[in-house]
Amino acid sequence: MISVVLLGAGNVGTHFFKAIESTEDVKVTQWYSRNLERIKGYGNKTIVTDDLSQLVEADLYILAVSDDAVGKLSSKLPFENRLVVHTSGSVNVYDLDKKNKRGVLYPLQTFSSHAEMDFNNVPICIETLDKKSYPLLKAVATSLGSPTKRVNSDQRRVLHLAAVFVNNFTNQLYRISHEITESEAAEFDLLKPLIMETAKKVQTLSPYMAQTGPAKRRDKKTIEKHLELLNNPEHKAIYKLLTKSIQHTHGR
Amino acid sequence: MISVVLLGAGNVGTHFFKAIESTEDVKVTQWYSRNLERIKGYGNKTIVTDDLSQLVEADLYILAVSDDAVGKLSSKLPFENRLVVHTSGSVNVYDLDKKNKRGVLYPLQTFSSHAEMDFNNVPICIETLDKKSYPLLKAVATSLGSPTKRVNSDQRRVLHLAAVFVNNFTNQLYRISHEITESEAAEFDLLKPLIMETAKKVQTLSPYMAQTGPAKRRDKKTIEKHLELLNNPEHKAIYKLLTKSIQHTHGR
Lengths: 252, 252
Known about the structure:
eight-stranded mixed sheet, elongated, 42% helix, alpha/beta, Rossmann fold, homodimer, N-(1-d-carboxylethyl)-l-norvaline Dehydrogenase, domain 2
């Protein structure tokens, strides 16, 4: 049995708690949050605390806190030479206080507060500063059901950046589509199957191969019609820039 | 039984043929392509022809040809007063020759040549110039299993435009992510579950509610790190523009 002390009770922390709870080989022996109210309800499942001086000994300490809090919290930990990881895509592993063994368990997924997440769909990128810590982190991630991948800092950084493109930026394109359709009282719902299909396509096909549409075809007539339809100058600029980008990718 | 003559043997035409074949109430009594080679193999399932003068009488003529070809082909049809529709998102319904009754069956989906498409996932937008044609078009689309929606020209136009955002532009964001990850030999595959989850989220949540990330949080530190990582000036410009767009949407 691998024992874990979990620190942080936000979205990521809570999803980690629930996922670890459902495994047979890993256990959250203690859950820390500076706001005890948040985790009090889990008191029948694990020891909850808001007092760092009360932290128990464990095989692994997972800091699931905001990017800005990682460094400070790690330096406040009242012990040394134990394995401490954070869960952020963008925080340097060296930001963790060097008095402990350091690593990262970065779940490459978007978590909603209201929906359960199947960790089979949560790839976990593992980074460690000492080789010896890797097997334990790998075992924890595997117990959760996650695909795992050992990465270095540069790789984790670009994965986090790429995640912003496929998640936040893509979602903003959905939002703009929502605004465009609403402007003519057309139904955004009609686009939902297309949104799913577009995501599904690149599960087996490269995005390069999956591309279609007026930009790739260099269909000037349609592109001009679309630009005329767009009233919002920012939407127009996004249309132009992404059209140009597609044409650069599919240059002749 | 509703009889259909299908014209065009590209992606959309072929998907329509297969979908209609699988229904009980609709039949493709004839399939026209100017390139007979393309459809010869279906000769045991329907009458195939490359000769417009041989077109048989039918309840409905579906022109599944390229945008540019719709007008010309419709004017070459050797009959009058029958129901003729095209399948394009962006072609004006008035581009169809007025000697026939005119309409549109616009399938709001992306079709691959190699994969079968379940028409339950293909919303069909129906437009007609005469009211009397609507029930027949609705019956055809419903037989295919498609959700249907009656739209006017303005609505069809914005749906087509919005489709470019959620399909072509989103796919280009996937492509850029592919380039970014490859630059550090990180695996694009790790992003695939996130891509699916991002699409899934907006099936039940509005894109506005689904948004997260550094742009929305106004996390300047992370945004600056990301901009430093991007070497391609076009990718940098896209990052900046979409970040600004998210911040305008989620303005305080």
